[in-house]
């Protein structure tokens, strides 16, 4: 798939577009930081640039890849989410990374949910995420997305654990789908804003 | 961005694709790749392939797959990763060595580049005799300098590009 043909995905707070050369600076900053420790980083300048080239090249080669996540209002980049399958990957993966300054606001959940629904719509019947077992935020996100440990599935290199995402049918009009939608909506429009000091 | 396809007497230079992965992986798994940083496992060889494709999008130039009509026999092209000063012309013959394919492809690449850059170099490990011969045939000269990012490599300057 050429870069121009990469579909644009819209969510309540986000716009997901194909990665552009101009989006590189925040990618580089993130992969130069400790934030990238569970994704092969930190990387030096050359390694980070080459990885970004690989992210873009993946789209041409596989026909799917990682989208750049933008804030719908400011257009600032917040991270990446999408499908990922280098050679040696046992299965197609759903992957994400959020820039450190944008963490904790539910962006990975909102983006990955949109990506997963899109890829399921494109004919994917299953998906996994390969997670470093020490990466607790990612494990927590897998669980929020309804993915569960799949001890039978092949790992990338034995140092990762495999989370299998719910099948497409499990995301249509189910309690799980409703729960995910509610959590995403809550980030955009919190129903409860705690005030003052918590009591116990 | 549309990647240009070049044709020579015996080769087509085209954008690398998924079907070329086996050729990349076989070359990078072999001892022949040691001189350029190999051997690499399948996933790392994939990264080279996806780098080669992505570079075109980031820079508007990059490496082509060399197709002899039966598939990919190697790669050749220009690259400029972050942190480098000079555009580099490089070539890797995965198979079909000793038949002048690298020279043929690199000549086509230089012709495509024309006067695009005032300075084009090739960084070559002095143990890589075959590659030095290609550079020599292309009219490049050994500057005697060592590449900053890879001190084991000598910097060859392409005169035609500088002219």
Automatic annotation (TrEMBL), chain A:
Keywords: Transferase. The keyword Transferase applies. It comes from the Bacteria. Residues 13-148 form the N-acetyltransferase domain. The keyword Transcription regulation does not apply. InterPro entries: Acyl_CoA_acyltransferase, GNAT_dom. It holds the Pfam family Acetyltransf_3. GO terms for molecular function: acyltransferase activity, transferring groups other than amino-acyl groups. This is Protein N-acetyltransferase, RimJ/RimL family. It comes from Jannaschia pohangensis.
UniProtKB/TrEMBL annotation, chain B:
Keywords: Transferase. GO terms for molecular function: acyltransferase activity, transferring groups other than amino-acyl groups. Residues 11-162 form the N-acetyltransferase domain. InterPro entries: Acyl_CoA_acyltransferase, GNAT_dom, N-acetyltransferase. This is Protein N-acetyltransferase, RimJ/RimL family. The keyword Protease does not apply. It comes from the Bacteria.
């Amino acid at each position: 798939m050429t870069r121009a043909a990469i579909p644009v995905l819209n969510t309540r707070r986000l716009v997901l577009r194909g990665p552009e050369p101009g989006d590189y600076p925040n990618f580089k900053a993130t992969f130069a930081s400790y934030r990238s420790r569970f994704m092969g980083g930190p990387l030096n300048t050359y390694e980070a640039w080459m990885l970004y080239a690989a992210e873009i090249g993946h789209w041409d080669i596989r026909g799917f890849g990682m989208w750049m996540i933008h804030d719908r209002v400011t257009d600032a980049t917040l991270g990446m989410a999408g499908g990922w399958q280098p050679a040696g990957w046992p299965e197609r993966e759903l992957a994400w990374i959020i820039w450190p300054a944008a963490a904790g606001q539910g962006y990975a959940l909102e983006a990955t949910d949109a990506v997963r629904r899109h890829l399921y719509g494109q004919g994917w019947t299953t998906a996994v995420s390969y997670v470093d077992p020490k990466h607790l935020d990612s494990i927590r996100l897998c669980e929020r997305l309804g993915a569960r440990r799949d001890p039978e599935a092949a790992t990338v290199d034995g140092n990762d654990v495999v989370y299998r995402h719910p099948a497409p049918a499990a995301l249509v009009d189910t309690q799980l789908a409703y729960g995910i939608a509610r959590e995403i909506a809550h980030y955009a429009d919190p129903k409860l804003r705690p005030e003052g000091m918590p009591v116990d | 961005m549309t990647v240009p396809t070049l044709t020579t007497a015996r080769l087509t230079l085209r954008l690398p694709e998924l079907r070329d992965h086996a050729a990349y992986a076989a070359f990078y798994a072999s001892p022949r790749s040691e001189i350029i940083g190999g051997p690499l496992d399948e996933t790392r060889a994939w990264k080279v392939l996806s780098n080669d494709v992505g570079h075109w999008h980031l820079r508007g130039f990059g490496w082509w797959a060399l197709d002899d009509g039966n598939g990919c026999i190697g790669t050749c092209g220009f690259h400029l990763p972050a942190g480098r000063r000079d555009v580099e012309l490089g070539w890797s013959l995965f198979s079909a060595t000793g038949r002048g394919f690298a020279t043929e492809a690199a000549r086509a690449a230089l012709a495509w580049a024309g006067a695009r850059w005032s300075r084009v170099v090739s960084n070559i490990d002095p143990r890589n005799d075959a590659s030095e011969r290609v550079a020599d045939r292309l009219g490049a000269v050994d500057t005697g300098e060592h590449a900053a990012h890879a001190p084991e490599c000598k910097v060859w300057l392409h005169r035609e590009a500088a002219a």
